[in-house]
User: Fold this.
Amino acid sequence: MKDSIIILCGGGPAPGMNTVVFSVAKTFLSNGYRVIGLHGGYSGLFSKAPRIEDIDFFKADAYFNRGGSYLQMSRFKPTDADFENNFNLGLFQDNNIKLLVTVGGDDTASTANRIAKFLEAKHYPIRNIHVPKTIDNDLPLPDNAPTFGFNSAKDEGAHVARTVYEDARTSGNWLIISAMGRSAGHLALGIGEATHCPMTIIPEMFNKTAISLDKIVNLALSAIVKRKILGIGYGTVVVAEGVFHDLDPQEIKNAGVSMTYDEHGHPELGKISKAVLFNDILDKKFKALGMKVKTRPVEIGYDVRCQDPIAYDLTYCSELAMGVYELFSKGETGCMVYVDTAGSVHPLYLKDLQQADGKIPPRRVAIDGGTAQNYFNHLCHFITPADYEAAKKYVPDPEAYDFKKILNW
Assistant:
């Protein structure tokens, strides 16, 4: 029986999933291996009847440059009991599988770390290598290297946002854009900078003050009032969804926004548009201040996850896939593949990336770094002390909308 490898995809989709999977397949096929695709993410490893299929060259060649994921994905997270009682060792033994390739973001990487420890503890002759994916760009890769999918998602997100900005300019309105990013604001900041958005709000901005709904609203108003002073009656505000997840749930409830709540009384933020949520809250603030500002919500999220990858990710994902083979051929396991700017492949050992609880921590935006600071200092519009007198025409207390005072910068 041929030596085999098996590939699974965890979490949510990102542009380049198919490029990684089928480039891995092409590389290993050309070196004499059988390649097996596992549907259902990690759930397939803990199932007695996993859904698997062989991948040949023709299938790989037909799907490697497409968006979405041919292998069905899952957010399944195995419990300790699953590891002890349900791990399907027979799947590996019956198919002579020598390598498990996992493709996914921080949650998938954290589970890959658990898998590595489990395989080592059990002395099973199976190696595992993880490929870092996420449009959130929040896996801790060296030298600010992106996760695959991020640049394609940013490209499409910027396409939507610059079209929306033109709508704002043409109609004299404000468009409120929410971008995906639960724990990090990379995608929102990338979209905001690319489109010269006058205000982008991300969780990392609140590094010197506690985040609150009032501060988020006042940051948006800081840009709107500043542009009024400048004679500009339109614009966009990009908000990372993570700012709402970092809020005290009671704040959302107190804002009077109509939404559903779970059994613990917490707002079910995953079920609603963050753009609509923020737009509704802003609208209430405008009315309270007597300001006449028209806003419209736009969500950037699920529409950028399954698009075709741009050339950057087609190349990058192919290099990551070939990197999997390079690491495997050198005997590596329990690691994440990393390709540097020169195209050289390196292992990043999952055990070295973990925090105390064994999870891989997210990489957040370097808010004091050049990218963020240059954007906020030179492209954004916001109230400063020099604007206080002019701002009194629109708000009673201009200091409350002073960008740097809001953030305690």
